[in-house]
Every structure is written in structure tokens, then in C-alpha cells.
Design brief:
heterodimer; A: 270 residues; mainly alpha; 71% helix; 0% strand; globular; B: 237 residues; 10 helices; 69% helix
């Protein structure tokens, strides 16, 4: 309450540092914006680490023999160790992403059970889907002299945990999709609910990667990897953009979200 | 009449847990003088095969398996405190809630690999070394959820703008300091010797001391809060 009154009487200064300080002091949505920026920061860092530093995206070949795999580890030794060091450092930001999506569901007309199950499922997801990969590749890279057969096993464990962890994303996306489609508060547009279906289907499409070691269904194949990754990228950009709109429109009420900027709704004096 | 909500019971689990953790830490032969990552596979296997070490490894890790998870109820009490702060949305509660099983889950994975290494020490030395490496990297390097937990709590305290804030501001500063102390351990894989190695000054001693200091300090702060609240509630019939 004090924040909204202050917002009405304290003019917003110009200049980026001044504006940031103003939002920190007076914007009741500061907590939402901080978490949104944390989410954007996490996804950018995730892309840099997995594509540029560790070369796990696009993935190396599933049909390589142990000596070739050892060579891959040696080629990317410091990239793997420093890249996953960064991932270990910022893993907790996953909780920020989950919390913001959880909050968007909590703001809908559906039962809070949807929000709680989304947060619970996605809190679990980072361990098999991200950290076991990072741990296995770190352990593989830290001792290049290890028996190549053991490095080979770490390689399979890492890439298959990353690509082959499906259920948490399947059920998590399903929960979010149902919530969006039955929501009466217009938190998300319905087309985004249907886009969730595409993301959900990718979790079925990737399953053959557990069987095939080459071809379109293998872990780096056109279907199991490339189509899934493109869908995931579109889906991620869509929800980051839509969550920004949700924050702008949020009036901290319990009814439908206004279509426009809710700032005037919160601070009619401003 | 005093309302029984059970929070005090959850709170008093912490000193009990603290005793089990300290005992198990002292009993595990790889902690008091932390095992060096530069040991060869044969030396690691010899560590597990040593009749003086083996029972201590097993018993300490069984105790950690029982009680390593035990801090979650205490962390849930912190979620309750964040809920009492003056925030317009529950998002910081959701953030904290999303973090609190992360640390214990990863610690359990480390614990399982130590126990597996000790289960059949006659296994080929290179496999024992692999299990030992996975356990140590998972134990030392997985600080991300703990760092985020500290940062989210600090953020929640800074944004708790009311006449009587739930926590004093120094608790936020303290949590940021602990987060900074934990950060270097993330890069445990980069070095087998020196301060970043898993037995090094930053990765082992600073990291673990920061966690111990956090538990002691937050237990004291939370104890004051919970008792103050329960005291206030008993005054009003």
C-alpha cells in the first residue's frame, strides 16, 4: 500500500540508473520484473554455455566410438569445465522461471493446485534434465586419462539425461496447457495454450532417441533433436514475451487481467 | 489458549539435525582431512578398502542419508516467513519453495555415490574412483540452489517495506554474503589442486563454513521470530 501511494507522489526520474532506483523503491511490480529479468538472463546464459562453451547443442554424434568421444572431451576440456561451472552457479535461477510461470497460473481463474503442481514438477526437472548432464560431463572432462570406456558411459549418461528426460516437461507443460485453456482471466491468449501442445508432443517425439544411435530419431537427428529444439525455441521466446505482457497487465486483482497497461489501474492518481 | 500449529516442533528439529550432521561429518574419514582429487584410482580404492575407513564411510553416509534431507521443514518455515512479508504477490515464496528441495536432492545423490563406492570396495579401482568423483563433484559443486535461496530471501527482505519488517535488514546482507562465499565452489571441476579443488580453501572450507554459519545464524533469527509471534498470539485470547 505504501508503495502505491509513494508511486503516486514521487515523479519518475529520467536516465537508466535513476529509473531503476525509482522502480526498486516505488514500483509494486519490482519483484515481478526482477524475476522476469532473472529468467531472461538465465536463458541467455543457458544458450551461451550449451552452444558456445560446452558444444552440447548441437549435440555430438551418438555413433562415435570411445576414442572419438575422448577426443571430443579433450577438444572442449576448458569449455566444458568452465561452462558447467557457470551452470552450477546459476542453477537456482530455474526456480525464478518456475515461480514466474507458477505465478501466472496462480493468477488464473483455475485452482491454485495447477500452480503448485507446475512449480513442484519443474523444481524437480533441473536435476535430471540439466544438472546430471553437467555433473557427468564435468566428471568426464576433469580426468582426461580415465579409462575411455568409463568416459564413454559418462558421455551417454550426460547427453541422454539432457535429451531423454521427458516426463517432467511433458506433464509440466500439460498442466500449464490445461490451465491456460480453461482460464477465464485471459492471462494468456488461447493460441499459446495450443502452442503448449506442440511443446508437449516433442517429449513423445524424442523418445526413440533411447533406441536409435543414428538417423533422424537419434539424439542429434532431424526429428528427435532439430525439430524439437526449434519448437522449444519458439515456445520459449513466446512465453518470455507473453509473461512480460502478463506483468504489464497485472492489476494484482483476482478477476480478468485488463488488456492494457495496469499501472493506471493500480495508481489512478499517477 | 495457545494455538498449536506445530511450527515450534519443526524448528526444534534443527538443533537435533545439527548434532547428527556434525557427528557424521567428523566420522566420515574423507572430510576431516578432505580427500585430495589428485589421488590415483588405486589410492582411492585403497581408501575405501581400508578396514579402518570402511565402516566409518558407511555409517556416516547412512546417517547423512537419513538426516541430510532434514533441513527442508526448516526451509519451509522460512517460506512461511516470506509469506508474512509485505509483498503484493506470492512470487518470492514460489521462488524459495522451488529451491528448497534442490540442495537436499543433490546432496542425496552425492551420498548415494559414496555409499555405492563403499558397497563393493573390491570393484575395479577405476570404478570406485568414478563413483568417488561423481560424489565429490555433486557434493561440492552443487551450490546453485543454495545461492539462489540466499539471494531470494535477501530480495524478499529488502522488499518487505512495512513498519515492523519480518526480518531485520542485516539478515538480507548476511544471506548475500553467504551466497558470495558459496559461489567459487561452482567451479570445482576446473582444478585438481589449489583453492578451487574439491579439498581446497574456497571449495571445501569456505563453502562448508558458510553453510554451517548460515544454519546457526538463521536458526537463531528464526527462533526469535517464531517465539515472538507465538508470544504475541498468546497475549490476545
Amino acid at each position: 500500500m505504501s508503495a502505491s501511494i509513494a508511486a503516486a507522489v514521487t515523479p519518475r526520474p529520467s536516465g537508466l540508473p535513476g529509473r531503476i532506483a525509482w522502480h526498486w523503491r516505488h514500483d509494486p511490480k519490482a519483484e515481478l520484473w526482477i524475476i522476469w529479468y532473472a529468467m531472461v538472463f538465465f536463458y541467455i546464459l543457458f544458450g551461451i554455455v550449451f552452444v558456445l562453451l560446452t558444444h552440447v547443442i548441437p549435440p555430438p554424434q551418438p555413433y562415435w566410438d570411445p576414442p572419438r568421444v575422448v577426443q571430443w572431451f579433450n577438444d572442449h576440456h576448458y569449455g566444458l569445465l568452465s561452462g558447467f561451472g557457470i551452470i552450477f552457479l546459476v542453477t537456482g535461477l530455474v526456480a525464478a522461471c518456475n515461480a514466474l510461470i507458477g505465478y501466472s497460473i496462480w493468477r488464473m481463474s483455475v485452482s491454485p493446485a495447477f500452480a503448485y503442481s507446475y512449480i513442484a514438477i519443474y523444481s524437480l526437472s533441473a536435476t535430471p534434465g540439466l544438472l546430471l548432464t553437467a555433473i557427468a560431463l564435468t566428471v568426464g572432462a576433469m580426468r582426461p586419462e580415465r579409462n575411455p570406456d568409463l568416459i564413454y558411459w559418462l558421455y551417454d549418461m550426460a547427453i541422454m539425461c539432457f535429451d531423454g528426460t521427458m516426463g517432467v516437461f511433458l506433464i509440466g507443460t500439460l498442466v500449464w496447457m490445461i490451465a491456460i485453456l480453461i482460464d477465464k482471466n485471459n492471462v494468456f491468449p488461447k493460441w499459446f495454450g495450443y502452442l503448449n501442445i506442440c511443446n508437449l508432443i516433442t517429449e513423445f517425439v524424442v523418445a526413440p532417441a533411447w533406441v536409435f544411435k543414428s538417423g533422424v530419431f537419434s539424439w542429434n537427428g532431424t526429428i528427435a533433436f532439430w525439430i524439437d529444439t526449434v519448437v522449444f525455441a519458439i515456445f520459449t521466446v513466446a512465453f518470455i514475451t507473453l509473461l512480460k505482457r502478463v506483468i504489464v497487465r497485472d492489476d494484482f486483482g483476482t478477476g480478468p487481467l485488463p488488456d492494457g497497461d495496469a499501472r493506471t489501474a493500480i495508481h489512478p492518481e499517477a | 489458549m495457545r494455538r498449536v500449529d506445530g511450527e515450534l516442533l519443526l524448528f526444534w528439529l534443527v538443533p537435533f539435525l545439527g548434532i547428527t550432521w556434525v557427528c557424521a561429518f567428523l566420522v566420515f574419514p574423507g572430510f576431516v582431512h578432505p580427500m585430495s582429487p589428485t589421488l590415483s584410482a588405486d589410492q582411492v580404492a585403497a581408501f575405501y578398502r581400508d578396514p579402518a575407513n570402511l565402516p566409518r564411510i558407511r555409517y556416516s553416509m547412512v546417517v547423512f542419508n537419513w538426516f541430510g534431507i532434514g533441513l527442508i521443514p526448516f526451509l519451509s518455515l522460512i517460506v512461511m516467513q516470506i509469506g508474512r512479508m509485505a509483498h503484493p504477490t506470492p512470487i518470492l515464496q514460489f521462488c524459495y519453495l522451488g529451491c528448497l528441495t534442490g540442495g537436499p536432492t543433490l546432496f542425496t545423490i552425492a551420498d548415494l555415490f559414496w555409499l555405492l563406492a563403499a558397497f563393493r570396495p573390491e570393484r575395479p579401482a577405476e570404478l570406485t574412483q568414478l563413483f568417488n568423483d561423481i560424489a565429490w563433484v555433486t557434493f561440492i559443486g552443487q551450490v546453485g540452489f543454495l545461492i539462489a535461496q540466499c539471494a531470494f530471501l535477501a530480495l524478499a527482505i529488502y522488499l518487505d517495506r512495512q513498519a515492523r519488517p519480518v526480518f531485520p535488514r542485516w539478515v538480507a546482507h548476511f544471506n548475500l554474503l553467504v551466497a558470495a562465499a558459496l559461489a567459487p565452489a561452482s567451479f570445482v571441476g576446473l582444478a585438481l589442486s589449489g583453492p578451487l579443488a574439491w579439498d581446497g580453501l574456497l571449495s571445501f572450507w569456505v563453502r562448508n563454513a558458510a553453510i554451517a554459519l548460515w544454519i546457526v545464524t538463521m536458526t537463531w533469527v528464526m527462533g526469535r521470530n517464531i517465539y515472538a509471534r507465538h508470544g504475541a498470539e498468546t497475549v490476545v485470547p
